[in-house]
User: Fold this.
Amino acid sequence: MQDEKLARILKTDPERGMSKLVAKYGGLVCSIIRGKLGAPEFCRADIEDCAAQTFMEFWSCSQDLGPADSIKGLLCVTAKRNALDALRRRYREKGTASLDSEDAPEITDEYSLESDLEERQLREELLRSVNELGEPDREIIVRKFYLGQPSKEIAKRLGMSVSNVDTRTHRAVNKLRAVFEEAE
Assistant:
């Protein structure tokens, strides 16, 4: 899809346009951000947050796009700028915090590398289990819990009734719960 056609869709149907935009340029945006935030102190969630911020900023100015504007170029510049801002913020937070100040966070022994690793493994296992649900349950779970879409919107997008979406959600959650109870 050409940028001109995508720009028209963004102006006439912003929701559909953003969906197409993320599908077309999501990998590129994440790649740019990952290149800047590849340090160990940045996790996958930080990269996803930065990508989401990039698309939100683009969406807020998408109505002002002119015919000569390059969507790809604007997204790349915005992604790079957001990633560098996140990097600066992280280093500023790490470099200027004083442990003697009253507003310094309390250091506890509760955090451990093992618990962080276990949490990441649990998230990865959950994602694998969601992917194994099959369609349309996988898409319903992703839309409902990862994208935060209401049942009514999911039903409309998938051509189902709201009660069918709710029933499938309930059953899929029960399947996931059973998988994790078995693993324990």
